Amino acid sequence: MKELVTYPRKKSSMKKNTISFPKAGLDKETLLQKMTERRANDTHWQTGKAFALVYHPGKERSEAIKAAYDMFFSENALNPTAFPSLRQFEAEVIAMTADLFHGDENTCGSLSSGGTESILLAVKTAREWGKKKMKIAHPEILIPETAHPAFYKAGYYFGVKVTKIPVREDFRVDMEAMKAAVSENTVLLVGSAPSYPHGVIDPISELSDLAVEKGLLLHVDACIGGFMTPFAKKLGWPIPDWDFSLPGVTSISADVHKYGYAAKGASTILYRNHELRKHQFYVITDWSGGIYGSPTMLGTRPGGAIAAAWAALMTIGEAGYLEMAARTLKATQMLQEGIAAHPELKIIGQPDVSLFAFGNSEEGKNIDIYALADELSKMGWSFDRNAVPISIHITVNQIHLEVVSDFLADLKTALDKVKKFRLSHVTSKVQIKAVKGLQKILPEGALAKIQSATAGKGGGGAPKAAMYGMMGALAGTGDLHTMVLNFLDKLNGLEKVEIKASESD
User: Fold this and answer.
1) What is the Cα Rg of the chain in Å?
2) Cα–Cα distance between 141 and 164 in angstroms, integer?
3) Which among 144, 174, 192, 208 is most buried, taking Cβ atoms within 10 Å?
4) Are strands 355-360 and 391-395 parallel, antiparallel or unpaired?
């Protein structure tokens, strides 16, 4: 008998935070109290102060959708024969969405866990289609530089080359550059409806013509706009065609948990026909456990999210979506007009629907936009920040109609304050906290390199930009890549990573 070889556990010189497995469970009251305490510093989206991440259809509709989720809390759509109700819910959500997107009796698809999974599935499908139908050994996809990072993620995961196509001055993809980039390995073209950073819809009609001409697939990423633009168009907004009404569009991704107002964990991926969708599936027939088939990336598929997606469409209906779209678009117009009333600020590009970004005008070129964002954040507002161009990103939904005047009042206060800042200083406690947090995890010399790269932009040798600006200073370098990997590693562990200052600091 062989002697068992053991390997001694290495002792780490670093002190780690640990937590022991609980010896006994908490009672419900204590459990919920602890959870309530934990969420005290979360974004207060219920008050309408979050311009990202959360889409709220109102209390009554939300309660109905939650009830549907709870009803199927334990069910698992891994095996649709065990829970035929979930299979029917999914099939009906796909059918209703296909109708919204001008599909026909051949249009089909699947529910996924979110926009990223839907995009991954679209790219995987294109890869398999290219290999099997076109005999392409090294598939390539062409995407606008403003397309969602999930396309790069898909390329990384699936070994597909991702070629970035520049956009025009209006932030829509440059069609001449797209045409020139088509090669013998190209399998998929991509357009956004709209793109997330600037809220503009790519020229999907022209992309459709190119796809038909070259015999290629065309995916439209409507993850954020899919359940808004059709209703905006019915309300008279000048939304260009982007869906299956165009002959070259072969697949569409659209999130039900965004402007569909469903519970998180629900997106759709639709295909023009069943033959194309088959390339999405995975099947193994010689496993010791039997035959295994999976339609999407996930094995276990939470029944609650599927049921809630169906419930959202059914309880809101077209009339409800039109009503919420009208409120959303009115809030969008009011916000844009209020922002543009400040001569130092301007709306970036010409957004097509309910998400947009704003930054410096020529008159306000010395305004530090990230400092403005920090001041608004300290007032409780939550939103994203764009890197190109430097700007504040706003995603509007129907709840925001109630807080437009509050936001615009706070914007004026924040803008007045930022105009008084000396640009030679780090402009807020939020930035100072960010710098201190990064200093602990950056590779040696990286912080000095950031400071050197940003010195002179604000004078005095101090970093002018907040987190986004620092990352932008090292864009494309190994230091930035390492910095982000280290940051994610820390962020997803027990160790506390302080990146935001509270008002009391």
Assistant:
1) 24
2) 9
3) 192
4) antiparallel
> Which residues is 164 bridged to in the sheet?
143
Nearest alpha-carbon partner for 324 in 238, 339, 383, 315: 315
User: Which tokens is 67 given?
Assistant: 């009830």
> Phi-psi region for residue 41, left (φ > 0), alpha (ψ -120 to 50) or beta?
alpha
Instruction: Give me the pLDDT at residue 504, please.
Output: 36
User: Which positions ≥6 away from 42 have C-beta within 8 Å?
Assistant: none
Q: What is the pLDDT of residue 442?
A: 54
Question: 318-420 is classed in which CATH architecture?
Answer: Alpha-Beta Complex (3.90)
Look up residue 93 and give its amino acid: V
Listed as ranges, residues in the chain with pLDDT below 70 are 1-17, 421-505
Is the Cβ–Cβ distance between 126 and 114 less than 8 Å?
no
59-71 and 303-340 are packed helices; what angle lies between their axes, rounded to 10 degrees? Answer: 160
- DSSP states of 75-122 as a string? -BTTSTTT-HHHHHHHHHHHHHHHHHTT--TT-EEEEESSHHHHHHHH
Checking 479-484 for CB contacts under 8 A at 24+ apart, the result is 479/442, 479/443, 479/446, 479/449, 482/443, 482/446, 483/438, 483/441, 483/442, 483/443, 483/446
- The ranges assigned to domains in the chain are 68-313, 318-420, 429-491
CA 268 to chain CA centroid, Å, is 14
pLDDT at 434: 54
Nearest Cα to 115, choosing from 250, 321, 253, 289?
253
8 Å CB contact between 222 and 229: yes
pLDDT value of residue 141: 98
- CA dist 265 and 251 (Å) reads 20
Sheet containing 345-347, strands listed edge to edge, beginning at the edge strand earlier in sequence: 345-347, 355-360, 391-395, 384-386
- Asked whether this chain's domains 68-313 and 318-420 adopt the same fold, the reply is no
The tokens for 129 are 């289609």
Cα 125 from chain centroid (whole Å)? 21
Residue 438 per-residue DSSP state: H
Nearest-angstrom CA–CA distance, 127 and 161: 10
CATH code of 68-313, in short, is: 3.40.640.10
Cβ neighbours of 256 (radius 10 Å)? 29
